[in-house]
Amino acid sequence: MTWDSVLQLATENESKTAFEAIDILLKFCKNIIKNPSEEKYRRIRLKNPIIESKLLPVSGAMECLFDMGFLEDGEFLTMPLNCSLSVLTVIRNELTEVKDALRESDNLETVPLVPLVSAPNTPQTASTIPQAAPTRPAPPTNIIMSEAKFYSKLDNSLQHVLMYENSSLQDKARSVIPIETLQKEATQKLETILSADRSQQIDIQDCLLLCLLDWFKTSFFSWVDSLACERCTGPTTNNGMLPPNSDDERWQAGRVESHRCNVCASITRFPRYNHPGKLLETRRGRCGEWANCFTLCCRALGFEARYVLDWTDHVWTEVYSQSQQRWLHCDPCENVCDKPLSYEAGWGKALTYVIAFSKDEIMDVTWRYSAKHAEVRSRRNECREDWLVSTIYKINKNKRSAMAPARQKVMLNRTIVELVEFLTVKTADNLELSGRTTGSLAWRLARGETGGGMSNEPFIFTLSEREKQLKKVHVKYNCPKNHYVRISNNNEEKKDWSSLCFQSTSLARKEEKEWKMVYIARAEGSENASVSWKFDFSESTLKIDKVIIKAESCVYENGVITWKICGDDQCIMLNGKDLNLPTPVDVKGSSSLTITGSLTKGIGNVAWQHTQLFRQSSTDFNNFPFEIEIYLM
After folding, report:
1. 133 has pLDDT over 80
2. Domain spans in the chain, listed from the N-terminal domain onward
3. Inter-residue contact 585 to 550 (CB < 8 Å)
4. Cα(363)–Cα(414) distance, integer angstroms
5. Which residues have a catalytic role annotated?
6. pTM of the full predicted structure?
7. Which residue has the higher pLDDT, 52 or 324?
8. Domain 2-134: which CATH class?
């Protein structure tokens, strides 16, 4: 990797430019090797005019610094004291070899330069440093500095994903995954799919992936907003950061949150571990920990998986489906598969860069996750597009050079297919609720997206023969079980809150693992949402006599929930609290009934959470916060 950067520096620049850059890089090498414990030689100020004019614009120069061991540190590059001097020596020798070759071929001489380090209390000024114009036009300095940070972020993620290939870590993951149980569930799921259509190209691995995703979300990992107090188990509030100790650093927890108990005031530490092996033990965290651990689990079960980093602060996984010959989006936090537009359409994310990393490649996959390509391009200002394309190409070229020819061909074909996919702009259409609408029937069956569960088809209640005899319709819903019971029709059960809805927009069922509560709320990032249920008795001679409705809800801050109850030619408006208890509604004489709930307002980034329907304890299976009784005449 180091020689590749040195070679790039020598071959992609004019000789004089390369010579002067190498001369500066050699000074860094020699100073650190000669004075390994001197901190001032391990710190480079990016705004130093010499750095700005003679290193930042030069192709390969910054890559050499990163190869030496320098890391991005605000407006500086810093080399940790534990970096290997042997690597630095190798780079010094390579740079010296290239410098000698350039001197002989072009009669170049070293240009005297003042010290480049930023020692404490000895700031450098532009007036004391000889200025030399770059040999080619340089992009604005702020863009170049941003690109150095961008490259560091890419490189860190590329190094991190190599951990998923550790055989010991994969063994550890397999030891906690109930593989036999998941395989049985996958077999049953596949049989269901094939019984519907045997021509579909869905295999057991696709079904195993879905089962793994569900197990990870529902049985293995837990979400952390704030931890229960270790001393008294009371609720806590995030109280800032604490310095990591040696054990935290061992497991790559560079940040440790301080959670202060609201009851006894004691502090509970929450290290943000970045080591997937440790996460197999703690089994908790936020999206970074979830995707980190889940990607390892995928690799442990033999899936080709990529770790996907969204620059707007989210992380997930992509898994390659051999049967479908494409990459599938998998978000373990949400237990969703193949719903790539959910972040933009449902969460309201203003995406910029979405990059996927694996041991084999790096890929800019932004266009898979957006239906608004022009808007996304207008926000991508952290680096030049040609620089990003070139950087990704060089990284992948280097990785593929070590592959067998057959594997190189496979990877090239996949890349071509993927790039062609990105050319077609997708359409969202409430994808955050309904899932993928363009996949095959079998694939939608596999993920429970037909029939009731997640269908886009509006459901309308009509009278069964038994309900005609009873002259009554009685339906209720339990949120923890996430199912309806139609008592008036022999206690018929129906899974999923949306299965009997007439319409719904920007709503989702939420689970608070820490507080053990479940509810229906707006999709994250949405400003409003609505849901409705419709009853139509016009095919019979019966009319509505009396209606009793209970629809429990909770509002916080300035959140607002309103209900509209409509008969054939009249509507009644109610506040959310009006239906917290069974309430009679007068639409007598109507042959239809529509119940619509609207959720609006709230404060800040969590406004969506300030309006909640049917909130219950996750263990409360006996009560029904939503209940409708319609008496007919």
Report:
1. no
2. 2-134, 163-224+286-444, 460-632
3. no
4. 11
5. 287, 314, 331
6. 0.55
7. 324
8. mainly alpha
